[in-house]
Structures are given as structure tokens and as C-alpha cells.
Write a structure and sequence with these properties.
alpha/beta, CBS-domain, 3 domains, 4-stranded mixed sheet, 13 helices, disordered C terminus
């Protein structure tokens, strides 16, 4: 179960509030820690049973403070036009999952600063109420002071200038604002985050050696989490670079067949029945439009188990005519299949969503968010291949130095999805939103011109 998942409790302003199973671990640890603290500070004033109850209430109120911290981020994000998917409480606190980043550096800065600002306001309010509360009840006063101090720590800790903390997001936004490059801001904040995480691990190890067991272990855990987040951010940068550097022609396959317009529907039916698994590595070269009826223009058919059949493109004596689906086979009686020709039942090539072979992969990833397959066009505007999510994801992973075993790739092809669940469409949208890349007319789709010949 990922951090962004968990059990949904309710919604706040349309934002689902979720609790991850690991939250119960930290709730227990926090309750034990508060009970030990109150046992010392409130000695003789509270019964043991009530002591545990006060400790539990304090732990719960601490996480209410964390929730308000994340709500601060979320409400400002909504004001900036960014959809918030959920807020999840988990082992290391809370996290707000957003649909995308803000489109401007100033907007990103406001969202990042909102959480610590909420924590600071809570800290000031609670600490100012601590003395009056202690006159009402020493237990209440101690709890209010404790929560005030913890909110102050929460705010100051999150302002440390390194990802994934809010301070790192603030650094990223400031560098982005100054340099005009969101990528540069991410690089600087990520480097700062790696340094802070390494220092936390070293300091936590020293504290363990000196007998500060719980505090030292907690620092090591935070450092380990920070290093993991830094690695994820570095991988994100590498994925973005791959999406910008690689071209559609680098990943194109050919998952279509070619028929002559004079081919009968009977032959089309036989072709559909005879379609079977062949090489997954078929080249995306231009097929011969004059191929014999019923023959594929190459061996580029889907892998075994693929739910998406090959397209059938149609030529007439060397000229591209259109595309045919299985509609005529479904709509016409079998007795007419011998007399009817595929050329009489064509759809225009422009009915297929297409993309130039010179386009970067991020544009293909955007269009594949709403389409299972794209037709790849040569510089002359003629069909020369196809591109789908599995091969696009495989190319990006290969650029990162990862080669997946065939079963994983076959599974991705059966599901018409990216290997390992890569969110390349979401990453590409983020690149466009932040100005890292510029989309032509805001959309990565090109119509297919009706060619006059090969």
C-alpha cells in the first residue's frame, strides 16, 4: 500500500482524508512517549489510567495539528487551481497528494509555505493559552503547552531547506523564480535534501551510541526517508530528461497490417482469424502498400495476449486510402463478404490519432492518456509505425539503465499500460504545466494528411 493510499474516513472541502495502517504504529509510539512525559511532569496529580487517556488525547491532537498543516497546503493549492487528490496520515506524519504542481513559481511558494504558517499560528495560539489553561487544570495546561511546543517544532522542522520538506519546496520555488527553471530549482533543493538526510543519519547514529535510543532511531528513520525521497526526485529528473531527449521514432513499432483496397471482406475475415503472436521486435519500417491481399505488410503484430488488435491500413495501387475496422464484418451478412471490398468500407486515416516520428516522447505520453495507440507519421506525413504505452515506458526505463524481464513487459502489453505503473502522462503534464516544455497549441496531436501517394 502506497503512502497515498489508506482507509478513507471522510472528506474536507471535497478532499478525502485517509489513514495509512502505519499511522497506528506512530500513534502508539507517541502515546507511550506522552505517557512517560506526563508521568514525570504530573507526578501525583493524575491517576495512572487517566494519565494514559491524557497521553492518547495529546497524541490524537498532535495529528489533528498535522492534519491542519496539510490542510493549509491543500486549501492554498485549491486556490491556485491545483486539484488535491487526498490527505493521508502515515508513519512519518502527513502528506497531501496533488494532481500536479503549480504552474508558477510564486504559486508553488505559497503552497509550500502554507503548511508551516498554519503550524506557526497554532504554536503561538497554544503557547499563549498555556498559562490560562494551567489555572483551569494543571493537566490541561501541560497538554496545551506540549502541543504548542510540538507545533513550533513541526513548523521549524518543515522549514529545513531540503526536499521532501516544505523548506525544500520553498527553496525549489525560490530558485525557480530567480532562474526561471523549475528543473534547476528541483536540482538545488534535492541536493540540499540529500545533505540534510545524510546529516540526520550521522547525528542519529551518534545519539544511538550515546544511549539516546528512541530519538536517535527516529532521526535515522527520517534520514533514511529523506534519502529515499531524494533518490525518487533524482529519478524523476532522469525520467523528464528521457521524455525530452527521446523521439517517437526511437520507440515506434508497427502494429498494423496493410491490405489492398480490392481485398474482399472474406479475406479480411481470414486475416483476422489467422492473426497470431509473432516477434515483438518488428521494425517500424514502411510496408509495401502493394502487398498481396490478405498478407501483412510486415510481422509487427501484437504480443501474445494483447487485447488491442492490429490496425488494418488500406492502399490502392501504391496510394494510401484509409483504415478499416471490423464493423463491416459485424454489420454485413456473411453471404456478401465475397463480393464486398475493403475499399468500399474505409474510414479516413485522419480518424486515427497521429504523431510525427520526430516528436519527443513527452508529447506521445500526453496523447496516450486518452488513446491506446498512436499512428506514427514520417516526415512526408505517411504512416511509418505505431506507438503504445508499453514500448514508450520500456524505452524510458532502458534510458535509466533498467531492463525489465519479458514477463513484465508482456503483462504491460496485455494491460495496454506502462511497465511498473509508470505515470509518464502525469509527469508530462507536470512538465507542460511548469513550463519545462512547451506544447504546440497546448496539445500533442496532429491530424493525418490525406496523402496523394507513397
Amino acid at each position: 500500500m502506497a503512502v497515498g493510499e489508506g482507509w478513507q474516513l471522510f472528506k474536507i472541502r471535497g478532499i478525502p482524508l485517509r489513514i495509512h495502517p502505519t499511522w497506528f504504529v506512530i500513534l502508539f509510539v507517541a502515546t507511550v512517549a506522552f505517557e512517560q512525559h506526563y508521568r514525570i511532569t504530573l507526578v501525583g496529580q493524575v491517576s495512572p489510567g487517566l494519565l494514559w487517556a491524557v497521553a492518547l488525547v495529546t497524541a490524537v491532537m498532535l495529528f489533528v495539528s498535522v492534519l491542519l498543516h496539510e490542510l493549509g497546503h491543500s486549501l492554498v493549492a485549491l486556490a491556485q487551481g491545483v486539484q488535491v487528490r487526498s490527505i493521508t496520515l502515515f508513519l512519518l506524519g502527513g502528506v497531501a497528494s496533488v494532481e500536479r504542481e503549480c504552474s508558477t513559481a510564486m504559486g508553488a511558494l505559497l503552497v509550500a509555505a502554507a503548511g508551516p504558517a498554519v503550524s506557526l499560528v497554532l504554536a503561538v495560539a497554544l503557547l499563549s493559552l498555556g498559562h490560562p489553561a494551567s489555572h483551569l487544570s494543571p493537566v490541561l495546561g501541560e497538554m496545551v503547552n506540549q502541543l504548542g511546543a510540538l507545533n513550533l517544532v513541526l513548523a521549524l522542522f518543515n522549514l529545513l531547506p531540503g526536499l521532501p520538506l516544505d523548506g525544500g519546496l520553498i527553496v525549489k520555488a525560490m530558485v525557480w523564480q530567480i532562474t526561471g527553471s523549475q528543473r534547476r530549482g528541483l536540482e538545488v533543493a534535492n541536493a540540499s535534501g540529500r545533505l540534510l538526510a545524510s546529516l540526520a543519519i550521522v547525528l542519529g547514529s551518534l545519539m544511538l551510541l550515546r544511549g539516546s535510543g528512541l530519538a536517535g532511531a527516529w532521526l535515522i528513520l527520517l534520514g533514511w526517508f529523506g534519502l529515499g525521497a531524494a533518490r525518487n526526485q533524482k529519478q524523476l529528473l532522469l525520467v523528464q530528461k528521457a521524455l525530452k531527449d527521446l523521439r517517437v521514432k526511437d520507440v515506434a513499432q508497427r502494429r498494423y497490417r496493410v491490405l489492398e483496397a480490392s481485398t474482399s471482406l472474406r479475406q479480411l475475415s481470414r486475416l483476422r482469424l489467422e492473426d497470431g503472436p509473432t516477434s515483438d521486435n518488428a521494425p517500424a519500417s514502411q510496408p509495401a502498400p502493394g502487398a498481396a491481399a490478405g498478407q501483412a505488410g510486415g510481422d509487427g503484430v501484437p504480443a501474445a495476449g494483447s487485447e488491442l488488435p492490429d490496425w488494418i491500413l488500406v492502399c490502392d495501387r501504391g496510394r494510401w486510402r484509409g483504415v478499416i475496422d471490423d464493423g463491416p464484418l459485424r454489420d454485413l451478412p456473411v453471404q456478401r463478404w465475397d463480393s464486398e471490398r475493403v475499399g468500399d468500407h474505409l474510414l479516413p486515416l485522419s480518424s486515427l490519432v497521429s504523431i510525427p516520428e520526430s516528436a519527443p516522447l513527452w508529447q506521445a505520453a500526453l496523447e496516450l492518456e486518452s488513446n491506446q495507440r498512436l499512428l506514427v507519421l514520417s516526415p512526408a506525413g505517411l504512416p511509418c509505425g505505431t506507438v503504445e504505452k508499453p514500448e514508450l515506458g520500456e524505452a524510458v526505463l532502458r534510458r535509466l539503465g533498467l531492463r525489465l524481464p519479458p514477463p513484465l513487459l508482456a503483462s504491460a502489453r496485455r494491460q495496454s499500460g506502462y511497465p511498473l505503473g509508470l505515470a509518464l502522462g502525469q509527469i508530462s503534464r507536470g512538465m507542460v504545466t511548469t513550463g519545462e516544455v512547451v506544447s504546440a497549441s497546448g496539445k500533442a496531436a496532429w491530424g493525418v494528411p490525406e496523402p496523394s501517394g507513397r
